[in-house]
């Protein structure tokens, strides 16, 4: 109904109004907005840029230079000393451990949450509404309310100081956010596809495997990326379950390193902090479209 | 598929379609059901039971103590009310500020500017990094005595102090960290803003509404379901903040208890002092409190959340 040109001309003849922006010429507004946004972005990422610059600075120069260019103080030494960690166990071990935990978390979440999501989205079964409500309820549970009995359970199974408490729950779809993500995704797939497959004689498992799994690649990638980032950043669970430094993930390793050496070697601390963020940033940049779409539909962080 | 045809006919002879669908559904749900029973529901109930005991790691010496843990928590644990105060301050100050930033930036980004994708990426990135140990480490050095903030202030001849080391400001540095992660709710607001039809704004403009009036009478009511959604999620997340606090205060909650968050006190009681029964009681109080606040938010929704004209 609205012709843009007409409405624009109408707008310009509209009765005198006190518009916050009206005293600013039309052409200037985007420039002002960009200036404000660029300044805000700069403030937001300045700490990250300073972290990066400091990682490449001689430790003695870090706390005298708020700038972003290492200049004459440039060095790679921080990475070399930092990577050795505590001597008897280095960051290569922490990284390998984190990769195993995060990798298995990805596999577990994609597998178990896709299955559960499919059942909730596309199948009819007794207690479906009740179970769905319970599943959604678990999204809101504070993890601290579960921590102690889970600890008792896993320690009685003899799983302390192994990766099992960090990984097995993922294969049991305990991160209900992802189940919800798959439910939302599977609901959008048209019913005609499944009707056709059923007429061809496909059972429920074939329909899931041949139709839904190939179509669900975006949901799987979103789940994979968030699972990886969450597992990589997780600190509380590795802190509780892992005892020997050889089994530490990067987060607990970094915290141990902070206690042990930071007062003497800021440079190495900055370098290892930076390195520990790289996989998250990498995952984010490669999956960002999917991640942004994912949070927009389910509200994940 | 040639095999499944006759196979299906054979099965349907003794099971109805509905029965087979139900069985298939429970097979699909099996991993989740096992997890739900043993890793979620079981532990929740177990921690309720443990909260009435003095459990400290050995089942033989465990005794039923009734409400003792709850009485001790509310009356004689000196650190307890301090941790409640710190946590409530953190959640009810930093979450609204974070949401206000998220909304403001989303509204500016929604003006049809170029480079939207780049801005969104930069604003969103901190919310993925905010709970990592590395950023908490960085925060210690940004807000420390010789940190980035004081270096920058030094350029203007202002001499700062250690914001992390001072009980008056330590909590605020952690609040700043939370506000820094406004990108996630911002993306959700941005998606919501896209849904508001442009005609509504055009009509309001014709009626002489200025930008401020359009924001209050169109943008905010249209986004109110998302304000509720982001508010609930950020609040629940805020009550669970742990990594930042642990790393920034070296696990102590210091200086002078100013960053002794509820979760950190719970962790200390449970895993350094092995008062697992007592910590379970703390966990249940947290669970109930979050439940009550969430319920209040949802119940209040009918007074301020607008779910379109359709209903």
What does this structure look like?
The complex is a heterodimer of chains A (301) and B (311). With 301 residues, chain A is an all-alpha fold. Chain A folds into two domains: 50 residues, no CATH class; 208 residues, MetI-like fold, CATH 1.10.3720. Chain B has two domains: 47 residues; 235 residues, MetI-like (MetI-like fold), CATH 1.10.3720.10. Chain B contains 14 helices and no strands. The N terminus of chain B is likely disordered. Classes of the chains: A mainly alpha (301), B mainly alpha (311). Chain A: It comes from Devosia geojensis. Chain A: Belongs to the binding-protein-dependent transport system permease family. Chain A: This is Sugar ABC transporter permease.
SSE ordering of chain B:
HHHHHHHHHHHHHH
Number of domains of chain A: 2
CATH fold type of the largest domain in chain A? MetI-like fold
Total DSSP helices of chain A: 15
Largest interface: A-B, 113 and 109 residues
* Coarse structural class of chain B: mainly alpha
Tell me the Rg of chain B in angstroms: 26 Å
What's the CATH H-level homologous superfamily of the largest domain in chain A? MetI-like
Q: Which CATH-level-2 architecture of the largest domain in chain A?
A: Orthogonal Bundle
The overall strand count of chain A is 0
Q: Would you summarize the structure shown here?
A:
Chain A is an all-alpha fold. Chain A has two domains: 26-75, no CATH class; 91-298, MetI-like (MetI-like fold).
Which helices and strands occur, and which strands form pairs?
The complex is a heterodimer of chains A (301) and B (311).
Chain A: H1 4-13, H2 28-55, H3 59-62, H4 77-83, H5 91-122, H6 128-139, H7 144-156, H8 164-171, H9 176-187, H10 191-199, H11 204-215, H12 217-233, H13 236-241, H14 250-261, H15 266-298
Chain B: H1 4-12, H2 17-50, H3 68-75, H4 78-109, H5 116-129, H6 133-142, H7 148-155, H8 170-180, H9 183-194, H10 198-206, H11 211-239, H12 243-248, H13 262-272, H14 276-304
């Amino acid at each position: 109904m609205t012709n843009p040109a007409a409405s624009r001309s109408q707008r310009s003849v509209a009765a005198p109004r006190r518009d916050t922006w009206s005293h600013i010429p039309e052409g200037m507004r985007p420039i002002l907005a960009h200036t404000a946004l660029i300044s805000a972005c700069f403030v937001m990422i300045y700490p990250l840029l300073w972290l990066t610059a400091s990682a490449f600075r001689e430790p003695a120069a870090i706390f005298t230079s708020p700038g972003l260019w290492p200049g004459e103080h440039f060095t790679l030494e921080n990475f070399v000393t930092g990577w050795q960690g505590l001597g008897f166990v280095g960051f290569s071990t922490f990284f390998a451990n984190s990769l195993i935990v995060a990798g298995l978390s990805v596999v577990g979440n994609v597998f178990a949450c896709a299955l559960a999501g499919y059942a909730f989205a596309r199948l009819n079964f007794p207690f479906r509404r009740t179970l769905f409500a319970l599943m959604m309820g678990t999204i809101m549970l504070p993890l601290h309310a579960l921590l102690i009995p889970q600890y008792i359970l896993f320690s009685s199974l003899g799983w302390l100081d192994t990766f099992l408490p960090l990984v097995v729950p993922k294969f049991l779809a305990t991160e209900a956010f992802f189940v919800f993500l798959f439910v939302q995704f599977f609901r959008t797939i048209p019913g005609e596809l499944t009707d056709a497959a059923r007429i061809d004689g496909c059972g429920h498992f074939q329909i899931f495997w041949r139709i839904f799994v190939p179509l669900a690649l975006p949901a799987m990638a979103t789940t994979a990326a968030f699972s990886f980032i969450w597992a990589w950043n997780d600190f509380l669970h590795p802190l509780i379950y892992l005892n020997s430094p050889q089994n530490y993930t990067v987060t607990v390793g970094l915290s141990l390193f902070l206690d042990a050496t930071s007062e003497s070697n800021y440079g190495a601390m900055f370098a290892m902090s930076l390195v520990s963020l790289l996989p998250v940033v990498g995952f984010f940049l490669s999956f960002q479209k999917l991640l942004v779409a994912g949070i927009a539909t389910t509200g994940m962080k | 598929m040639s095999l499944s045809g006759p196979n299906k006919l054979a099965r349907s002879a003794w099971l109805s379609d509905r029965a087979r669908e139900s069985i298939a559904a429970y097979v699909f749900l099996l991993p989740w059901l096992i997890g739900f029973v043993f890793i979620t529901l079981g532990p929740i109930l177990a921690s309720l039971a443990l909260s009435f005991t003095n459990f400290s790691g050995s089942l033989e010496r465990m005794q039923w103590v009734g409400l003792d843990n709850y009485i001790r928590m509310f009356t004689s644990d000196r650190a307890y009310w301090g941790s409640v105060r710190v946590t409530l301050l953190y959640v009810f100050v930093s979450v609204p500020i974070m949401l206000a930033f998220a909304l403001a930036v989303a509204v500016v980004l929604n003006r049809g500017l170029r480079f939207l994708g780049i801005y969104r990426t930069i604003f969103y990135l901190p919310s993925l990094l905010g709970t990592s140990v590395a950023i908490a480490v960085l925060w210690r050095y940004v807000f420390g005595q010789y940190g980035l903030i004081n270096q920058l202030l030094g350029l203007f001849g202002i001499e700062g102090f250690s914001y992390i080391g001072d009980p008056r400001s330590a909590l605020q540095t952690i609040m700043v960290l939370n506000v820094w992660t406004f990108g996630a709710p911002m993306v959700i607001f941005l998606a919501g803003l896209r849904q508001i039809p442009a005609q509504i704004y055009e009509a309001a403009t014709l009626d002489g509404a200025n930008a401020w009036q359009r924001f209050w009478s169109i943008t905010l009511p249209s986004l109110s379901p998302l304000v509720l959604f982001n508010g609930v999620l950020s609040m629940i997340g805020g009550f669970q903040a742990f990594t930042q606090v642990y790393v920034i205060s070296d696990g102590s909650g210091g200086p002078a208890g100013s960053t002794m968050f509820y979760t950190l006190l719970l962790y200390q009681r449970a895993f350094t002092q092995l008062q697992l029964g007592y910590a379970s009681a703390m966990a249940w109080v947290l669970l109930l409190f979050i439940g009550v606040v969430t319920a209040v938010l949802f119940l209040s929704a009918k007074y301020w959340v607008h779910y379109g004209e359709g209903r």
